[in-house]
Design brief:
Blueprint (H helix, E strand, L loop, with lengths): L1 H15 L4 E6 L5 H6 L5 E8 L2 H10 L6 E5 L14 E5 L8 H10 L6 E7 L6 H13 L3 H9 L8 H8 L3 E14 L2 H5 L8 H8 L2 H16 L7 E13 L2
Parallel strand pairs: 1-2, 1-4, 2-3, 4-5
Antiparallel strand pairs: 5-7, 6-7
C-alpha cells in the first residue's frame, strides 16, 4: 500500500490547505504525508506518530535529511503531547484501522490549537478501491471463510459517505470541508499486482498466509484471470478513491 499512500499524499496535502506551522502527522506509517507536507516551505516542523515500530524506522530513514521532520512511536487514541501543542494536524489512511476512531478524532482536536486545521482521508473501500475488490470478491467466492473478512473490510468505520464529516462535526470542528480524492493504481503486470499479497503485511497478505497450499493456488489462479480480463498479461490501471475531510478548531 505504500506506493499508493505516497501517490494519494500529494492531493491530500493540497486539500488540507496546511501551509505553515508545527504539524502532527497522526498515524504516519512510513512517512508519505510528512514528505508531501514538507514540500511547503512554510512548514516549521512535522512530528509523525505511529504504533508500528517498523513503520517509524522506515519513516525515519526516509526523512533523515530533513531536520524539520521527526517520528516516534505513539498511539493516535492517546497522543503523547499536551493540549494545543500543534498548529495543525492531519492523518492519511489510518482512521479506518483505528479501534476507536471517534476517540482518535477527539485526540487530534485536543492537541491542535484554536484556529488550526485538522484533516483526514481514508479509502472508500466498498465503492472506490478497485484493485482491492478484485482480490476480495474473487477470493471470497472460492473460499467461503474469506467472506467474513471481506465483510469486515468493506464495513470499516469512517469509510461510508459522509462518515468522516459526521465525526468532525461531533468533535466540534467548524468550517468543515469534504472531498473525494482519486488516484490511479498502476501495475506493470499480474506479478506486480499480486506480489504484495505474498508479503508479510497488510490484510490481503494476511488472508493469503492463512490459506492452505491448494486454496492459495486456486485463489491466485482465479485472481489472475480477473486481472487479465481475457487479454494478455501486461499493464493495468485502476481508480482508487478516498474520502477526505478538513475542519477548523474553534
Amino acid at each position: 500500500m505504500g506506493r499508493w499512500s505516497r501517490r494519494l499524499a500529494v492531493p491530500f496535502a493540497e486539500f488540507t490547505g496546511i501551509e505553515t506551522g508545527d504539524i502532527l502527522d497522526g498515524g504516519c506509517g512510513t512517512g508519505a504525508l510528512s514528505a508531501a507536507l514538507a514540500e511547503r516551505p512554510g512548514i516549521a516542523s512535522i512530528t509523525g506518530i505511529d504504533l508500528a515500530e517498523t513503520y517509524i524506522a522506515a519513516a525515519q530513514a526516509g526523512a533523515a535529511n530533513d531536520p524539520r521532520i521527526r517520528f516516534q512511536v505513539g498511539d493516535l487514541c492517546e497522543i503523547p503531547f499536551p493540549d494545543s501543542h500543534f498548529d495543525n494536524s492531519a492523518s492519511l489512511l489510518v482512521l479506518h484501522f483505528v479501534p476507536e476512531p471517534v476517540r482518535a478524532a477527539a485526540e487530534l482536536r485536543r492537541v491542535t490549537k484554536s484556529g488550526g486545521t485538522i484533516a483526514a482521508t481514508v479509502w472508500d473501500v466498498r465503492g472506490g478501491l478497485v484493485f482491492n475488490r478484485i482480490f476480495f470478491d474473487t477470493a471470497a467466492t472460492l473460499v467461503p471463510r474469506v467472506m467474513e473478512r471481506r465483510k469486515a473490510n468493506y464495513t470499516r468505520p469512517m469509510t461510508r459517505p459522509g462518515e468522516l464529516a459526521e465525526t468532525w462535526r461531533a468533535a466540534g470542528l467548524r468550517e468543515i470541508r469534504e472531498a473525494m480524492l482519486t488516484i490511479r493504481t498502476d501495475f506493470a503486470g499480474f506479478d506486480d499486482y499480486f506480489a504484495p499479497m505474498l508479503g508479510q503485511t497488510g490484510p490481503l497478505a494476511q488472508i493469503m498466509a492463512e490459506l492452505d497450499d491448494a486454496e492459495r493456488n486456486r485463489v491466485r489462479d482465479a485472481v489472475r484471470e480477473a486481472y487479465l480480463d481475457g487479454e494478455p498479461d501486461g499493464p493495468r490501471s485502476y481508480a482508487a478513491t478516498a474520502w477526505a475531510v478538513a475542519g477548523t478548531v474553534p
